[in-house]
Each structure stands twice: as structure tokens, then as C-alpha cells.
């Protein structure tokens, strides 16, 4: 189902998604080629190329918002992953429509929206699972981490605090749901969010000396293995992180590990 590719790519770009599909990184050029090769053309939101970066709002965003928030029913957290994901999209056509809605809402929703957490966790996790399942890919949880210290006395051009020491980590953690009919939405969401929160807490607890002078990648992978083991359950297994980039800025010196 090639026509799904540009939609999920848009969702990945527009949403601060916490999950992802292993190896599924598509450039705009690849997405366009995929669209043009299919009989049905599906457009995607794109970032403005002039002035400040701001997405073009789809005229379908309001309808998409209503479509997605309608799944936030009373007690939805107690539903099984199998039932919840089936309700979101049970056919390829429904999957295409659902992922289009995810992309539309991702281009407009703000962090102070009352449904932001629902969209950025439950809907995001389920949309990636549905897509990866359709494509035959493993589920992968995206886990960006950051550590900042020594704030400077000046702000950047956007008025944000500048730090003399920063450490940015890009990592993924694969997971599998062996029996989706026995795992609830709440159980899945809690496991993935706790994994990321505890990894962030671990990084926050390290000293600058440990981050710069130690084997930070090994330390993070060891901690992630401990967490994956403790958070896994019989019907849902988490794997240690795959860390593919660590960037450290220390008093003007950039270190990449």
C-alpha cells in the first residue's frame, strides 16, 4: 500500500512522536515518488519554505481532530490493544484515512490542547503500530534524550535559555506485543512512557565528567537493558535502546559519539 507512505512520514514529521518503525525514514523526494507511482494521489502537509517554519494547515484538520478525539471514550485505557487498534483502522483504506487524520492533526495541535497527551501518546503509538504491522516492520519506540546545565547569562534569538553544557541523545527501542488482546492501552502507554522517563532521569543524574569522560553510550545501553527487562511483561517485551547519535557541547567544544 504505497499510498500510506507519505501519510505516515508526515505524521512522523508533524508529531513529537515517541515511537517509530525501524528503518522507515523517507525523504520528501521519496514520498513524492511513492505518491506519483500510485493511482490515488494523497497530499501531505509540508513546512513553509519562507520565513519562520510553520506547517500549512490542512482544510481537513478540524474534521481530523474530531475523528481522532472521538476515540477518547470513557474507559478507553482499559481496552485491549487489539480492540483499540482494530477500531482505529481494520482495512487498508481505513488505515490510509486514519494516518491522513494523524498527519492533519499533527500540523495543528498545540501542547496546551486538552487532548495533546492522548494524541501524542495513545494515538501516536497505535498509528505507528498499525502502519508497521501492515508493512511487516517491528515496533520501535523513538526516545530522544537531553541533558543541559550551566545556563548562560544571555538568550538565543528565540528568547530561549542558552546552556554552556548540553548532551543530546537519539535512540530507539524496539518492542513487541505478543498478545495484543491481553495488553491494555494503559499498560502499553505506561510501559513506553516509563521507559523514556527513567532513561531521561538516568541521564539527568550523570555528571558532566561522566558524560564527557566516560563511555556514555555503553552506560545508556546498560541502563536501557535493565529497564527493558524490568518493564517487560509476558505479553509485551521491550528491548534495550539502539543509540545512533550522541552530541555533546561543552563550553563551545562539540563532541559526537
Structure explained in plain terms:
The chain contains nine helices and six strands, in the order H-E-H-H-H-H-H-E-E-E-H-H-H-E-E. The longest helix is centred in the last third of the chain and has 21 residues, at 185-205. Residues 1-20 and 22-55 have low confidence and may be disordered. Strand 5 (236-250) and strand 6 form a beta hairpin. Helix 4 (81-88) packs across helix 6, helix 5 runs antiparallel to helix 6 (116-135) and helix 7 runs antiparallel to helix 9 (216-231). Strands 1, 2, 3, 4, 5 and 6 form a six-stranded antiparallel sheet that branches. The radius of gyration is 19 Å and the shape is globular. With 257 residues, the protein is α+β, with helices and mostly antiparallel strands. Helices cover 44% and strands 21% of the residues.
Give structural attributes:
alpha+beta; 6-stranded antiparallel sheet; 6 strands; 21% strand
Amino acid at each position: 500500500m504505497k499510498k500510506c507512505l507519505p501519510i505516515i512520514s508526515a505524521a512522523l514529521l508533524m508529531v513529537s512522536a515517541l515511537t517509530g518503525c525501524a528503518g522507515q525514514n523517507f525523504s520528501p523526494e521519496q514520498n513524492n515518488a511513492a505518491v506519483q507511482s500510485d493511482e490515488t494521489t494523497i497530499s501531505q502537509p509540508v513546512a513553509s519554505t519562507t520565513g519562520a517554519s510553520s506547517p500549512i494547515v490542512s482544510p481537513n484538520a478540524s474534521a481530523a481532530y474530531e475523528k481522532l478525539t472521538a476515540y477518547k471514550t470513557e474507559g478507553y485505557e482499559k481496552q485491549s490493544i487489539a480492540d483499540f487498534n482494530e477500531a482505529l483502522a481494520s482495512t487498508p483504506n481505513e488505515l490510509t484515512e486514519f494516518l491522513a487524520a494523524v498527519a492533519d492533526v499533527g500540523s495543528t495541535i498545540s501542547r496546551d490542547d486538552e487532548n495533546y497527551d492522548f494524541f501524542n501518546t495513545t494515538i501516536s503509538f497505535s498509528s505507528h503500530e498499525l502502519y508497521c504491522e501492515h508493512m511487516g516492520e517491528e515496533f520501535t519506540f523513538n526516545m530522544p534524550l537531553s541533558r543541559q546545565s550551566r545556563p548562560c547569562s544571555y538568550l538565543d534569538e528565540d528568547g530561549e535559555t542558552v546552556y554552556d553544557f548540553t548532551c543530546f541523545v537519539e535512540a530507539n527501542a524496539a518492542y513487541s506485543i505478543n498478545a495484543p488482546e491481553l495488553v491494555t492501552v494503559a499498560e502499553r502507554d505506561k510501559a513506553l512512557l516509563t521507559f523514556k522517563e527513567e532513561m531521561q532521569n538516568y541521564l539527568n543524574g550523570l555528571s558532566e565528567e561522566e558524560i564527557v569522560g566516560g563511555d556514555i553510550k555503553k552506560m545508556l545501553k546498560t541502563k536501557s537493558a535493565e529497564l527493558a527487562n524490568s518493564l517487560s511483561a509476558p505479553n509485551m517485551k521491550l528491548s534495550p535502546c539502539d543509540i545512533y547519535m550522541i552530541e555533546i557541547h561543552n563550553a563551545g567544544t562539540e563532541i559526537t559519539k
